[in-house]
C-alpha cells in the first residue's frame, strides 16, 4: 500500500470519532424528507406548516453562520464542536417527543443552531488531529459528508416507517455516541486562528466578488430546497407516500450528490475555469427543474429529475465553495461564514413558498418558479463576472485551519 493510502486510513481514534459525528450531522440535511407526509398526517398539519421544519432549521443555521467564526476563534474548535453536538442531541430528542408541529418547528430551529456550530468547526478539528496533513483530513471529511447526505434519507425512511419520531430519536442517540467518543478520544485542541471580529462576516459582504457569489447562491439555494423539500409532497399523489419509499428516492439523490461533489466537480475544474462550470451546470439545473414541472404527474419522471438534480447539485455545491475561497483576500473562514449565512436564507424561504404556490396555482408551479430562481443566479454571475477574476485561480495560500474552516462553512 502506498504511503498516501496509509496516511488516510491509519488515523488516530480521535479523527474517526469526529468523522463519525460528521456523518451523523450531515444526515440531518435529508433526514426529515421521507417523514414530511407522515408528520403532516399525524400532527394534522398543512403541507406549508410541515415545510417550516426546513425553514426554521435553515433560517437559524444561516443566521448562526455569521457568528460561528467569531465564536470558534475565541473558545476553540473543540469546545465549539461539543457545544454544537450537545445542542443537536437535546433538540433532536425534543423534536421526537413533540406533540404538535409547532413544537417540532421550534426544536428544529435549535437543531439548526447546533448544526451550524458543529459543521463549521468539524473539519478544523479533524485537521488538528489527523495524520498525513490537511489533504488527508479533507478527503476523510468529504467522505463523511457524502456518506451522511446519502444515508440521511435512507435512515429517515427506515425509522420513519415505524414512526415519524424514529429519525429524531435515532439522530439524538447516534449524536450522543459521537459526543462521548469525542470527549474521550479527542485530547488535543487544534491551534486557534487569530480572533475574528463579530462584525467581520457582515463587513465582508461589502466586497463585490463575495456579494455576487452570495446573491447567486441565495437564488441557487431556492432551487436546491424546492427539489429537496417540496418533492416529497409532489410524490404523495403519485402513490409514493410511505417513508421507506421516499427514503429510497432521496437516498439515490444523496448518492448522486456525493459522487459528483467528490469526483466530478474536481475533474471539471481541472479542465475549465470555475465560472464556466457554473455557467454550464446552473442552466442544466434550471432545465431539470422545468422537467420536474412537466413530469409532475409521472412518478418515474419526477424521481428521475430528483436523481439528475442530485448529480448537478453536487457539482454546484463544490464549485461555489471553491469560488468563495478564492474570491477575496479576506480570511477564508470570514468569507465562508458570510456567504453561507446569505445562501441559507434563500433555502429557508423556498419550502413554504413552494407549497403555497402549489396550493394557489398548481403542483408544477414550484418547480417552474425554482427554475426561474436558478436562472436569476446565472444572470447574477454573468453580470457580475468582472468581480470574479480571482475565482478561476488555484486554491492556494491557505493554512490547514483556514482551508478547513472555509470548506466546513461552505459545505454545511
Model description:
The protein has helices spanning 3-9, 13-30, 36-42, 47-75, 77-96, 101-129, 133-160, 166-185, 200-204, 208-235, 243-271, 274-294, 299-327, 332-360, 365-383, 400-411. With 412 residues, the chain is mostly helical. α13 packs antiparallel against α14. The protein is globular. The two termini are 33 Å apart. The relative contact order is 0.16. Its main location: membrane. It is a multi-pass membrane protein. It is found in: Cell membrane. Pfam families: MFS_1.
At the first level of CATH, the class is Mainly Alpha
Regions with little confidence, pLDDT below 50 for 5+ residues:
1-7, 395-401, 403-410
Average residue-wise pLDDT: 84
In this structure, how is the largest beta sheet organized?
none
Roughly how many Å apart are the termini?
Answer: 33 Å
- Overall helicity: over 70%
Report the β-strand fraction as a percent range.
under 5%
Number of strands: 0
CATH third-tier fold name: Growth Hormone, Chain: A
CATH superfamily: MFS general substrate transporter like domains
Architecture per CATH nomenclature, i.e. the level-2 architecture: Up-down Bundle
Number of domains: 1
Helix-strand pattern: HHHHHHHHHHHHHHHH
* Anisotropy-based shape: globular
Structural class: mainly alpha
Radius of gyration: 20 Å
The count of helical stretches stands at: 16
Membrane topology: Multi-pass membrane protein
Organism: Cryobacterium breve
Protein name: MFS transporter
Pfam family, one: MFS_1
Amino acid at each position: 500500500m502506498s504511503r498516501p493510502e496509509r496516511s488516510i486510513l491509519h488515523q488516530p481514534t480521535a479523527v474517526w470519532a469526529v468523522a463519525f459525528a460528521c456523518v451523523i450531522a450531515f444526515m440531518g440535511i435529508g433526514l426529515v424528507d421521507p417523514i414530511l407526509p407522515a408528520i403532516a398526517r399525524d400532527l394534522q398539519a398543512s403541507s406549508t406548516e410541515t415545510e417550516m421544519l426546513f425553514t426554521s432549521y435553515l433560517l437559524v443555521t444561516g443566521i448562526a453562520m455569521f457568528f460561528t467564526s467569531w465564536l470558534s476563534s475565541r473558545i476553540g474548535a473543540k469546545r465549539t464542536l461539543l457545544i454544537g453536538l450537545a445542542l443537536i442531541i437535546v433538540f433532536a430528542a425534543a423534536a421526537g417527543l413533540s406533540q404538535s408541529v409547532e413544537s417540532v418547528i421550534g426544536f428544529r430551529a435549535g437543531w439548526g443552531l447546533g448544526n451550524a456550530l458543529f459543521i463549521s468547526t468539524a473539519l478544523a478539528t479533524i485537521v488538528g488531529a489527523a495524520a498525513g496533513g490537511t489533504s488527508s483530513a479533507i478527503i476523510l471529511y468529504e467522505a463523511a459528508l457524502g456518506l451522511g447526505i446519502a444515508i440521511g434519507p435512507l435512515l429517515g425512511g427506515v425509522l420513519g416507517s415505524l414512526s415519524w419520531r424514529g429519525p429524531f430519536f435515532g439522530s439524538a442517540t447516534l449524536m450522543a455516541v459521537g459526543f462521548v467518543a469525542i470527549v474521550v478520544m479527542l485530547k488535543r485542541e487544534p491551534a486557534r486562528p487569530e480572533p475574528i471580529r463579530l462584525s467581520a462576516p457582515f463587513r465582508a459582504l461589502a466586497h463585490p466578488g463575495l456579494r455576487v457569489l452570495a446573491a447567486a447562491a441565495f437564488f441557487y439555494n431556492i432551487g436546491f430546497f424546492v427539489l429537496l423539500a417540496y418533492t416529497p409532497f409532489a410524490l404523495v399523489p403519485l402513490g409514493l407516500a410511505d417513508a421507506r419509499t421516499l427514503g429510497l428516492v432521496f437516498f439515490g439523490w444523496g448518492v448522486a450528490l456525493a459522487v459528483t461533489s467528490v469526483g466530478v466537480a474536481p475533474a471539471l475544474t481541472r479542465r475549465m475555469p470555475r465560472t464556466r462550470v457554473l455557467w454550464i451546470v446552473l442552466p442544466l439545473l434550471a432545465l431539470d427543474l422545468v422537467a420536474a414541472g412537466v413530469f409532475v404527474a409521472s412518478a418515474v419522471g419526477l424521481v428521475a429529475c430528483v436523481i439528475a438534480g442530485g448529480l448537478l447539485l453536487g457539482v454546484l455545491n463544490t464549485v461555489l465553495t471553491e469560488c468563495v475561497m478564492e474570491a477575496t483576500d479576506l480570511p477564508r473562514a470570514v468569507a465562508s461564514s458570510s456567504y453561507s449565512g446569505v445562501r441559507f436564507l434563500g433555502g429557508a424561504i423556498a419550502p413554504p413558498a413552494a407549497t403555497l404556490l402549489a396550493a394557489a396555482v398548481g403542483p408544477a408551479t414550484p418547480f417552474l418558479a425554482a427554475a426561474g430562481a436558478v436562472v436569476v443566479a446565472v444572470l447574477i454571475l454573468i453580470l457580475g463576472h468582472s468581480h470574479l477574476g480571482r475565482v478561476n485561480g488555484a486554491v492556494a495560500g491557505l493554512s490547514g485551519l483556514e482551508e478547513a474552516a472555509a470548506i466546513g462553512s461552505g459545505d454545511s
